[in-house]
């Protein structure tokens, strides 16, 4: 891994503006999932370093909070610019430790940077309210202030964007942050911290702790100083963190698993639906929480859709994401590969047909797959796949498919294709999901509210709504 700016390869934790090893010297290897070679050994910290980071974030809070939003925005703007200037290195780090193809990694760097830019601007417009008084001698106002010290725990599948989608609004609103990145992808997080340091973000405002998930998570949730926790990851861990946060009554944002339906109605533009399916299913080898998980195709267009999708999937090239011609990188680890293979085998054993792909290749790679004649009795209908497999179900009518699509504990992203305007409204309103892509397979951007309902979590990230989770409202009652 040859970085143009070698300073971006940081292997120590970043606490209170200092780069430091774990107190006990512990380290963990970061492995390239494509080559299975060691990229670096990174400090692996625990509870005591987490306490230090929380204390640093608490100390840094008053000065950071008391600056004007504009002053904070100027520093955040510089952070944004440095991310853009270093985007080639950041993308290479991301591909090397997470496996996504370089073009996708470059896209993620731009996406990640956009949250810093957006929230730096947004924080200047955190207006309050003047409420008509209830008595002649009273004046009532509402102001909005940053909530205080925040914690963030982020996953490996978006090693940069899930950090900036949390740190952007937090820092812009005047909060400070302690971040624990995923064990598999600490290098991108530490590079972001290096750029934050270079941008002049003061010591203690943004701290990064690669280390023991359970110890760090417990220390963050137990701390009364930490007023808010934002987590992206699995539903099981989200529930655990919510339980742990109960004693200190933390404000929570939880962006958890999904089981996205992708519906193709009989009046859809089939070619457009195939293009959308490719984007929404195979991005990051299917490892995103908004990836389509269940394809419901109207009986009358099922065979056409299946054939067209399979012919496009056959063109996808599997390999090391640093090769510019590659579309599908490795899965993150063997556990992920085993889970996808198990879902495939379960479906085939219950009557599904493997139209294309599915073979396990050397290392952590697999051939992207299309499965047909899939039914609700199969494991793949219920569980998040997090892999490059498109299972196609048949349906006959609108009401039936809405019921099927909503028949899941999850409620993050959903997609459908139709050219009938009345149906577009009906179905969009009936889908029990936080996000609905209509005639598109890509919905994520910094200006729109990202988040789910039911077991997919709490709160929204990005957009003008995303900063609300980092604010408290204060009511002022003035007697004159
Ligand atoms: N909603 C989403 O975007 C994502 C969903 N997932 C789903 O979750 C499945 C498993 O993926 P996985 O990466 O294991 O997801 P996890 O939920 O286990 O991990 C996400 C983050 O939480 C941390 N974490 C794990 N356990 C704890 C804990 N007890 N206390 C505090 N932090 C904790 C992890 O740390 P560490 O890495 O150190 O273990 C990581 O930083 C995937 O197959 C997918 O279905 C996964 C990633 C993202
Ligand atoms: O998969 C995830 O962790 C959510 C991020 C995906 C996106 O923002 O599109």
Describe this structure in words.
This protein is α/β, with parallel strands linked by helices and 480 residues long. It is built from 14 helices and 20 strands. Strands 14-15-16-13-12-17-18 form a seven-stranded mixed β-sheet, with helices on both faces. Strands 9-8-7-10-11-19 form a six-stranded mixed β-sheet, sandwiched between helices. Strands 5-6-20 form a three-stranded antiparallel β-sheet, with no helix packed on it. Helix 2 (69-85) crosses helix 6 and helix 4 (102-122) packs parallel to helix 5. The model has no long low-confidence stretch (mean pLDDT 98). Glutaric acid (GUA) binds next to helix 5. Glutaric acid (GUA) is lined by residues 155, 157-158, 161-162, 232, 288-290, 444, 450.
Give the % helix: 25-40%
Query: Tell me about the biggest sheet?
Result: 7 strands, mixed
Bound molecules: NADPH dihydro-nicotinamide-adenine-dinucleotide phosphate, glutaric acid
| Distance between the amino and carboxyl termini | 66 Å
Q: What is the SS-derived class? A: alpha/beta
Which range does the strand content fall in? 15-25%
Mean pLDDT: 98
Number of strands: 20
List low-pLDDT spans: none
Radius of gyration: 23 Å
The strands making up the biggest β-sheet line up spatially as 14-15-16-13-12-17-18
User: Can you count the helices?
Assistant: 14
What is the molecular shape? globular
